[in-house]
Each structure stands twice: as C-alpha cells, then as structure tokens.
C-alpha cells in the first residue's frame, strides 16, 4: 500500500549482476564489509526495486547524489545486500564479494 | 506510560518514539475527525540550547483502516526538514521570536504532508512551518497567538494540520505504577506498600509540566470513512531507512523499516512481554494475531490479583483470580483492543467492531456525536464518545485500562462473571485536571506547551 514502506523480498537473488557494476558503485578505497559509494552503475540501477515517491527528501540527503551501500552478508556464498535510495536488493556473486573483501582489507 | 519509552530499542530513539494517539470526532466541528500522533516524549521545557524537534530522517505516518482488514486504506505521511538561518551562532534564537518568519529564529522545521490512498499518492502541503519550542517569555513572547496559532495550516484538500510542540496531555502516576504496581490511592492494599507501612495518598502526575511533539490533523469524516462503514481504525508509525552512514558526508540508504507504532494506549507498554516489544514495534497491525495470546491472558491481571491480596476487610480480587487461574481467554480485552466492540455488548447500537481481523488499532465510530458533558472514563461510565471509542485528549486511559484488565467489563461478554467490588477502587488517582495546564477547546486541543523559563515552577 505505502510505497515508502515497500519491503524487499529478502533472499531474492540477483544473480547475473556484473562484478564491474558493483565495484563501480562501491568505489575504491572503501573499508570494512559494508561499503558505500557515490557513483551509480546503470546495471545496478536497472535491477533495483522501485523507489517511493515519498522518499525524495532522504534520497537527496545522501551526499547530493545517489549513494548506495553494499553489505556483504556472506563472502563465501557471495551474498550481498545492496541499498540504494530507498530500495534494497539481494545479490549473489562470489567473485564480486571476494573482490570487495580484498578491497576492504587492502 | 501510554507508549513513552515503552520498548528497549525505541526508548533510545526519542524522535521516532510514538507516545500517544488520539482520534475523536471534533467537538467544535462534528463533521470532522481529529487525529493526533505524539512523538518525542518527556520534554523538559528548558532543554536548550538544542530544543526538541521532529526527526528529518524519520517517516511519520498516521494510518486509517476504513474496511476492517487491519491494513491502511489511507495514510497521511509527514516529512520534516530543518533549516538554519544563521550558521554563525550556537543559539536557537538571537532575540525574541515574534512570528514564524522572525529573523531572530535560527533553527526552524518545515514539513510536508502526503496522503496515500487507493488513488495513489498526493502531496497536500509543502514547506509548512512548525512553531518554535516554547522557550520563555523573553524568547517566545505571546507564544499561543503569535507562534502556535499561525502554525495551524490549511492543506490543499481543506483539511487542517499542525505539527509542533504541545503540552503533554497524557497523565499517569508513573513513579508509583512501576514501583511494583503500586497505586497510591489504595497503596495500603498493595502487598509491598502495606509491608512498608505506606498509607493512601493522592496520585502524582509524572508527566506534569513536560512537553511533547504533536502531529495533528483535522479531516472531514467523509474523507476518512467508507460509505456505510462509520468505524475506522487508526494508528501511527515511525520508520527509518535501514542504513545510516555516519561520518564523511553521511546519509541514509535502503527501504524504510518501521521502528515504532501505536494504536491503543498501553498495549506495548503493559501487555506485550519485554522480549517482544521491539518486534511488536516493527510489525503491522494486520499481523497482531501473533500477539493475541498476550491480550487474552494479560500478565497484569495476575499481578493485580497478587499485588492486592485479601487483607482484613478488603476482599481482594477473588473473581478475577478465578478467571486467571482458569486460564480463561479474556474476550472482553480481545474485543476492545483487537477487533472492536460488537453491537449489543454495551448497548444495542453501540459498536466499534471492524471485523474479525485481530489488529491493534484505535477504533473510532465516527457516527457517534461528541458528548456535551464528556466523562474522561469514557464508555465504562456511559460516555460512548470516549475511549475506547477513539480517544480524546483528556481521557483517563490509565484508569480505564487498569479497571478493564481488573475485570470491569468482562461481564459484558461473560454473563457468569461478576466484577470484583474492588475494581471501582482501581485508579492511579489522577484526573483530567492533573496536567499542568488546560486542554484547548479547539484544534489542536492539546494545550500550549510549557515554557522553559517558568517550568518547572518555582517552589
């Protein structure tokens, strides 16, 4: 009913999301396993759930652009939660998760 | 308290902490209903220099179920933004704030109102001003007329709205109740208090002279009801985005998660067990069947029996004790709190029933006119325009719910039950005169907030 409270379907796999798109979004030099980025990759944008109309204020509050956060839930399985604007998608990509993990420890 | 700091997590997040919800047919405009959701509890009026405000990062909502399914058919969303006019000063104000556009007022809040219903989402107002907090006679002179009244705004659909600081209208002897269930007026009957030698005394209003932040909406009844269905269910919720990025440029990301909700007063406070309070706050009313056992078998009923045992000429609560010991489901409480009261229970025509879906909502029968001589004890005293038919700002919900849990209305659904005589003595001893200032007779009905210079009053 309420767009602003649409919930993600936790566990939904977004297999096929490219490693490049996540890394582009996550940016370089991020620390830890929850990585925030500034740039938005088209591939990722195409896969996110719809953003609520009512969330504009907060979306604009994120650094003047459209930041997103990647939370690696399980490196071994490559399970990641991607938060962008007011959307959340669950993606699975072992190579991307491993790459982010390496980046976070570098 | 009604729902102030009622769960572990939300007690650490006051700007998102819903404290009270009111819903009533407006006494001075009976073709409208007034809906009020309060947040930011227990504001000490002198709490500067960073005075209280809504959260810019919180999505506040008032939901209305018009069809009895425990889901919102209509939602009003409120979003706040804070603006600083003078970044060079640490002060909230650099001189008297004489109007909502005063240049001396440094930190202001504005808000938008959006209505979401089956037709979609529609913005009803933008950049609506909140009044400042009531600081004192030098900073906020003529507060009611110059600052609060102009903050009552008209929305594009003709509804009326106010968002800002108000005097706390809820009253409760918190210090006594949470001290082992003591009720000062009858504390000589409390097992622990009697052992300590305490004698009967008047109640003490723990929320006297504190403020709260209110979101108040006055809407034509026709805009929030379906034809032929005068009973609506009302609740509020506050939601936050799932991820907050601290440091750097900061920000938020992800969908909104509900962190607070409130329909009927005191449900999460004294019905839901500690281990489930945070979870309850995250759930929508339509899922409240999972909590129905706590309503049907309230822990507090057993505590009343245990804390007020027979002693001398005091008989205690033998009939309530029998119900508790038998494990009888409390159909009276399930009706009041989860489904509404069916017709024929109180009077042949009176009803707040919304259907079989168990959902904690404040139910209001909008076809019942406001009372000309309201009784703060509402329906249990024959005032059908009062709680639990909605809730007015002055209703004594603490006494009503304590007595209801003690068995005051069980006989309405179970003719074999006789309420214990002691039920009539169950009260924390407070009345609608217990708050520190008067309620208003017109929108937004909650009183002018207490100013920080004069409150707490000089001894």
Concise account of the structure shown:
The complex is a heterodimer of chains A (106) and B (459). Chain A has 106 residues and is an alpha+beta fold.
What do you see in this structure?
- The complex is a heterodimer of chains A (106) and B (459).
- Chain A is an alpha+beta fold.
- Chain A has a domain of 39 residues.
- Chain A is built from 4 helices and 4 strands.
- Chain A has a 4-stranded antiparallel beta sheet with strand order 1-2-3-4.
- Chain A is flat and about 25 Å long.
- The termini of chain A are far apart.
- The N terminus of chain A is likely disordered.
- Chain B has one domain.
- The radius of gyration of chain B is 22 Å and the shape is globular.
- The model of chain B has no long low-confidence stretch (mean pLDDT 97).
- Chains A and B meet through helix 3 and strand 2 of A and strand 4, strand 5, strand 10 and strand 11 of B.
Keywords:
heterodimer; A: alpha+beta; four-stranded antiparallel beta sheet; flat; disordered N terminus; B: 459 residues; alpha+beta; five-stranded antiparallel beta sheet; 14% helix
What is the fold's blueprint, element by element?
The complex is a heterodimer of chains A (106) and B (459).
Chain A: H1 19-26, E1 34-37, H2 42-47, H3 56-61, E2 68-74, E3 79-84, E4 87-92, H4 94-104
Antiparallel strand pairs in A: 1-2, 2-3, 3-4
Chain B: E1 18-25, E2 32-43, E3 59-65, E4 74-84, E5 107-117, E6 120-129, H1 143-148, E7 153-154, E8 160-167, H2 174-177, H3 191-195, E9 211-220, E10 231-245, E11 251-262, H4 267-270, H5 277-282, H6 292-296, H7 299-307, H8 318-326, H9 331-339, E12 362-365, H10 397-405
Antiparallel strand pairs in B: 1-2, 2-9, 3-4, 3-10, 4-5, 5-6, 7-8, 8-9, 10-11, 10-12
């Amino acid at each position: 009913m309420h767009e602003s409270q649409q919930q993600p379907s936790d566990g939904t796999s977004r297999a096929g999301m490219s490693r490049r798109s996540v890394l582009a979004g996550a940016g370089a030099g991020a620390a830890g396993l929850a990585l925030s980025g500034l740039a938005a990759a088209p591939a990722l944008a195409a896969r996110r759930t719809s953003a609520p109309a009512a969330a504009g204020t907060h979306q604009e509050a994120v650094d003047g652009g459209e930041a997103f956060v990647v939370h690696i839930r399980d490196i071994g399985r490559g399970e990641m939660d991607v938060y962008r604007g007011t959307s959340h998608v669950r993606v699975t990509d072992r190579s991307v998760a491993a790459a982010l993990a390496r980046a976070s420890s570098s | 308290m009604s729902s102030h700091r009622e769960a572990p997590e939300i007690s650490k997040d006051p700007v998102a902490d819903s404290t009270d919800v009111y819903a009533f047919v407006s006494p001075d405009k009976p073709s409208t209903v007034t809906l009020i959701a309060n947040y930011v509890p227990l504001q000490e009026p002198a709490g500067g220099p960073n005075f209280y405000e809504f959260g810019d990062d919180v999505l506040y909502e008032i939901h209305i179920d018009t069809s009895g399914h425990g889901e919102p058919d209509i939602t009003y969303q409120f979003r706040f933004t804070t603006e600083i006019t003078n970044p060079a000063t640490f002060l909230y104000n650099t001189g008297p704030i004489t109007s909502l556009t005063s240049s001396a007022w440094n930190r202001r809040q504005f808000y938008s109102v959006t209505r979401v219903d089956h037709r979609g989402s529609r913005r009803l107002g933008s950049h609506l001003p909140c009044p400042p907090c009531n600081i004192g006679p030098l900073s906020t002179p003529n507060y009611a007329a110059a600052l609060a009244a102009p903050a009552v705004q008209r929305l594009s659909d003709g509804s009326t709205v106010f968002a800002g600081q108000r005097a706390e209208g809820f009253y409760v002897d918190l210090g006594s109740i949470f001290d082992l269930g003591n009720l000062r007026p009858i504390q000589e009957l409390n097992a622990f208090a009697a052992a300590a030698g305490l004698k009967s005394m008047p109640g003490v209003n723990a929320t006297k002279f504190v403020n709260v932040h209110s979101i108040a909406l006055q809407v034509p009844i026709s805009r929030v009801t379906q034809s032929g269905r005068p009973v609506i269910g009302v609740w509020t919720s506050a939601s936050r985005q799932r991820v907050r990025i601290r440091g750097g440029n900061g920000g938020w990301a992800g969908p909104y998660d509900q962190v607070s909700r409130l329909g009927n007063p005191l449900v999460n406070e004294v019905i839901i067990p500690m281990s489930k309070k945070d979870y309850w706050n995250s759930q929508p009313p339509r899922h409240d069947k999972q909590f129905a056992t706590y309503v049907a078998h309230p822990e507090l009923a057993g505590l009343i029996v245990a804390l007020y045992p027979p002693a001398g000429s005091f008989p205690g609560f033998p009939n309530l004790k029998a119900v508790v010991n038998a494990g009888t489901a409390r159909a009276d409480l399930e009706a009041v709190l989860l489904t509404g009261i069916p017709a024929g229970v109180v009077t042949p025509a009176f009803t707040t029933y919304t259907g079989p879906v168990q959902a904690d909502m404040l139910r209001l029968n909008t076809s019942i006119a406001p009372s000309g001589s309201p009784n703060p004890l509402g329906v249990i005293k024959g005032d059908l325009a009062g709680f639990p038919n909605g809730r007015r700002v002055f209703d004594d919900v603490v006494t009503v719910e304590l007595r209801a849990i003690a068995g005051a209305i069980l006989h309405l659904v179970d003719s074999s039950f006789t309420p214990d005589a002691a039920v009539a003595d169950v009260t924390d001893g407070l009345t609608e005169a217990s708050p520190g200032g008067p309620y208003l007779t017109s929108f937004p009905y909650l009183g002018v907030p207490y100013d920080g210079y004069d409150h707490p009053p000089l001894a």
